[in-house]
Design goal:
about 10% helix, mainly beta, 2 domains, nine-stranded mixed β-sheet, about 325 residues, 4 helices
Length: about 325
């Protein structure tokens, strides 16, 4: 602190005192509960009126490590924690060592816990973490930007770097689905016109329209539904046909079957498979091959993780 409060100065200048200086440690992690510890034999509430509770613990800190080699100063901060299921170790496990969390160390006096301003208030960042049987040891300091990758991402024009359906991809598969043990796969119905050739996925128990395809873009066609171009659905739980298929829009979908393009007409491989296993048919894509074409099919090019400036650029 730049200016030490008068009450703290008085305590500092006493030859003897009935009170004690107390370290208060606060660890803040995004998305986690803030952890608070006090270097004291009992829990401490600070400020004493309307303040937070700091759990009693053993806190040790070594001397600040300063070098002449241009490295940022660091120090070791030890928190006594023996409970394997305690709050601190639980958060360490959930957050890969609390690396990047903010550590705030305050020093207050036990006779002046009513004061809202500490005698010392310093903040730094956790750089690494070490666990022993009796303690948690943090390396704390200022992170160096030279230790971080710059630029953050490696861009490849024809390949998306994002995890499919993750926060940066932002694709969300529709939840409309049907699970049945009566689903079977019948390949190779050949018509004279290539667009009319199809493989068929049969659901004798019905339910395809209400559960899945009535929620897809298209229009009713009597008791069936004519789908728009490139309507995609995924298969999960089959022995040989897991993955996504494009419905053959020449053939309307019925409540008991949907027809898909054969491999010669651009469809994916299709294997003859009898009913028996619990198989799920779900609208939308269950995976991605990370290409721009795949992103376009998902109407998600605004989040494509390929070449920078994708919108309106060479790959736009």
């Amino acid at each position: 602190m730049d200016i030490l409060g008068a009450d703290y100065i008085t305590e500092q200048n006493k030859i003897a005192s009935s009170g004690a200086w107390i370290w208060l440690l606060e660890i803040t992690t995004l998305g986690q509960t803030t952890l608070r510890f006090a270097n004291n034999s009992s829990d401490v509430v600070w400020p004493s009126v309307g303040g937070d509770t700091y759990t009693r613990s053993s806190l040790l800190m070594d001397d600040l490590n300063i070098t002449t080699s241009g490295e940022f100063p660091t120090y070791k901060l030890q928190v006594g924690e023996v409970e394997l299921t305690g709050a601190l170790r639980t958060q360490i496990k959930a957050t890969a060592g609390l690396v990047g969390s903010i550590v705030r160390l305050r020093i207050v006096h036990s006779d002046h816990l009513d004061l809202t301003t500490p005698a010392i208030d310093e903040a730094s960042e956790i750089l690494s973490c070490e666990l022993t049987a009796s303690a948690v040891i943090f390396t704390v300091g200022i992170p160096s930007l030279l230790s971080k990758r710059l630029p953050r991402d490696r861009y490849v024009p024809g390949f998306c770097r994002h995890r499919f359906a993750g926060a940066l991809c932002n694709y969300a598969q529709p939840s409309f689905s049907l699970t049945s043990s009566s689903i079977s796969f019948v390949p190779g119905v050949d018509q004279s016109t290539p667009d009319e050739r199809y493989n068929a996925i049969w659901v004798p128990d019905g339910g395809l329209l209400a559960a899945v395809f009535n929620n897809a873009p298209g229009a009713a066609q009597g008791s069936k539904r004519a789908l728009d171009d490139d309507t995609v659905f995924s298969i999960l739980g089959s022995a040989s046909n897991d993955g996504w298929f494009i419905a053959n829009n020449f053939h309307a979908v019925a409540d008991t079957y949907v027809r898909v393009f054969v491999e010669d007409d651009g469809g994916r491989a299709f294997v003859d498979e009898d009913a028996g296993a619990d198989i799920t048919i779900q609208l939308g894509y269950s995976d991605c091959d990370k290409t721009l074409e795949a992103c376009q099919l998902r109407d998600n090019t605004q989040n494509y993780g390929g070449s920078p400036g994708i919108v309106g650029g060479v790959y736009g």
